[in-house]
Design goal:
The chain has 2 helices and no strands. The chain has about 70 residues and is mainly α. Helix 1 crosses helix 2.
Length: about 70
């Protein structure tokens, strides 16, 4: 897939070129790798957030059951 970016500050373009040159890759390869890495990080963050929410919901259910059991025992 081809992407075209417009209105990118020249300083940003030069900085991307410098970083890519330091890694001995093209600016396009560097940008592509950076976008992929960012997407993977976002997916991991969303996955972790989902796991935390699921764990919290399970804890709330367990707490509600245990709290309800204590109320009956009293």
């Amino acid at each position: 897939m081809d992407m075209f970016l417009q209105n990118i500050d020249l300083i940003v373009v030069k900085k991307l070129g410098e970083i890519a040159k330091g890694k001995n890759i093209s600016s396009q390869e560097f940008l592509k790798a950076s976008l992929k890495r960012r997407e993977v990080q976002r997916e991991l963050k969303d996955y972790d957030k989902g796991r935390k929410e699921k764990s919290l919901n399970e804890f709330k259910k367990l707490f509600a059951r245990n709290n309800g059991a204590q109320e009956i025992e009293r």
